[in-house]
Structures are given as C-alpha cells and as structure tokens.
Amino acid sequence: MKGFPVNSELNPNTDKWKISQHCFSDKIRSEMTLPDKVQLNDITLREGRQLPGVSLKLEQVIEIADALVDAGVSMLQMHHDDPAEMSEVKKRHPNVLIDALVHPTAVLNPELAKPEIDLNYDHGADYCTLAFSFSEHQMCLFESMAGQRITIDEAIERAMGSTSYAKEKAGMSRKVGCLIQDCTRIPIDRLAEVCSRLVDSGADMICLDDINGMAIYRVYTHVVREMKKRLPNTEIALHTHNDVGMAAASLYAGLEGGADILYTCVNGLGERAHIACLAEIASVIQIYYGMDCGIKLDKMTELSNLVASTMPWPMSDTMPFVGRTAFSHLVEVHYCVPDTEEGFWSYLCMRPEVFGNTQHNLLGHYSGPWAIRAKANELDLVIKEGEEDKILQKIREKIQTVRRQLSDDEFKEIVFS
After folding, report:
1. Which of 166, 210, 218 lies closest to 185 in space, CA to CA?
2. DSSP secondary structure of 303-329
3. pTM of the model
4. Are residues 146 and 250 in the same domain?
5. Which of 254, 198, 202 lies closest to 190 in space, CA to CA?
6. I want to staple 120 with a disulfide (CB 3.0 to 4.6 A). Which of 100, 240, 258, 323 is the partner?
7. Contact 3, 293 (CB under 8 A)
8. Over the stretch 85-109, which tens digit does the pLDDT of each residue have?
9. Which domain holds residue 238?
10. Both 343 and 305 in a single domain?
C-alpha cells in the first residue's frame, strides 16, 4: 500500500480501516495549516545508530538502506563521519535524497566546516545539513568544542559563514540545511531573525531540533507556523525527541503547523528515550491525515524486524502497527463477539495486513472460555465440550509460575495434559 494523494479519499471507513469520522471534520481541519505535501526524512542510518552496542558494517548499512528504499522512503539522513556509506547508497539509489548531517563539533568553526562540507557533497549528498547552537543554554559548547567562549551574535556570524560556503559548494542542484538545536528555548522573534539571516546566507532548509522534548506539543505548531509565515520560500523541517514521551505528538503538531519535512527512525531508535517511529508517523499521516508520504505501509513490519535484528536492538512486542501484539486480543470480552465482519471491527480499527502484520490470540489471567476456544481454533486443536474451565485454570497456574506470555507449544501441552 502506497498511501494516497493529499486531501483525497479522506474516508474514515474503508475495507482496510474504520477510524473516527472526526479526523476529517471541516471544523477540525480548518484549525490546521497542513503543507501541500510532507517529506519523511528517515534517520535510522544516523541517529538510529547512536545507541550503546550498535556498530554496523558497510554491508549492514546497505541492507538497511535497500530495505528503507524498498519501503518507499525517499530521503535518508547519514552521518558526515562515514562518506563511503553515502557514496554507496547514492550509487545504488540515485533518486533517493541523501541528507548529510554535520554535527556542531565540525561547524562551530567555519574553517573546520569547509572540508566536511566538501566531503559530503563530493560523496553524493543532496542536502548538507549544518547543526548550529544559538541557545543561551548551549553557548558553553563553543568553549568546549571550539576553544573559546563567544557571544550568540558571534555564533550567528560564524554560522552565516559556514552556510555561505556550503551554498557556494552546493550550486544549483543541491541544497543547504541548517539545523537549529534547542529551538524551543530560543525566543520566537530571535529564532526567526537567526533563521532569516541563515536563509539570506544560502540555507534552503531550516530544521528545528528540540534536542530533549522541551515543550508541550502545541508549541511545535506555533513555532513551525511562525517560521513558515516568516520564511515563506524555505523548507521547514522538524526533529523531535521522546525524552518526555511526546516525540510523535510533537511531529503531528508540527505537521499541523505546516512542516515540510519530518524526521523519523525505524522502531523510533535514537539517543536516550529515542525519537519518533517511522511506521507510526507514516501510518498516521497516510491514514488519519490522508496525506501521501509515499511509504508502503505493508513493508513496515518486515522493515522493523530487519532493523531490530541487524542493529541488534530489541523491538517491543507492543509497538504500534508492527509489534507482535499490536493486533492481539487477550481479555475475554474481546472474544465475546460474533465471528463476522461486524465482529472483527468491534475491538480493532485497522487490518493488520495493511502493515504486513498479523492478528494474534494471546492468553492471560483475564482470558476466559471464548479466548481458549479462539486460541485452539488458531492452532487447529479440538477442545472437548466443558474442558475450557479446566484448561483456563492450568493456564493461570502456568502464567503465575513462568511470569511471561505462554508459547503455542506450552498451550498445546496444557490442552493435551
């Protein structure tokens, strides 16, 4: 499945999902300033690797990149420390946009930034995104990384120099991005002034980076909307973190403010509490907002499992859309519905196959006879009339002993005992 055009087929009811009609209410939509189109920039091959114990070989990077592109991802962020990876990915996927991030360690000094910028464009980057710091809380970075304490105005001048050089190197066919760290702790007028000067210096894209989840989600709508209003011909991107559990909500808020580019990562991997998950963001935007990101949702489960096994970094069973239990039933009332089309939608709003996933019957303390029969039918087992309560008691005793989800083999053993 590949999504659908912006604002067409805005339908809460299809054969694949049945969601709230309020998602497409004219009144609710009128409060949004959605962009004409939205680009997902997947950063699995950059921030997704900033985890303890994760170090990928080139062939693993290529395998993940191939899978991302196969799933419809058309923009990938990669790190300036690994130019050979960028070259190989661009060679294999010439139509995919490569965004090369240059960290503050390199851009705080314009002279140090130049060779990094050269390296990125020479190795196939379509965007060279320079990460800057202008927040009063981050000015100490200049002292620790660049060897001297400077003012915010001096930092702006340095950033303009790096941006101007990047634009000169980029030419007409490539773009310059400026990532503004700690964007929500910078006063809005000051933020707009800084971004405007960077755009005048050659920035084609401004990425607003919250760094730690510094604000309630409505702030992101406000900040993005203001930047779109004040910089009308500039792409506005948004990068959020999940430190306070609002990474995804903040991205949706930014989208409703008009953000052109949203940063995601497979399985939401990233530093500390991670960032927003590609499968979740793509699914919600394409189904609930009705906007085409070009993502093939039926590839999401396969992609998530590949990244989880390659990193390797565990993937939660409860992860929305792609997790093993995302489309499961356990409590008895979920099973007390007729085995009909109407019954299917009683406790589900989407079909798991839309995301390449499957439905599961789980067993727990609050399961009952209906759940026992459903699990038996799933495994082609025959349970004698009246045996359900005896089996249920054994299942509860087993769970109390092992304190985990029972395997299919353990269920069979209990049925046959």
Report:
1. 210
2. HHHHHHHHTT----TT-TTTSTTTTEE
3. 0.91
4. yes
5. 198
6. 100
7. yes
8. 999 999 999 999 999 998 877 777 7
9. 21-310
10. no
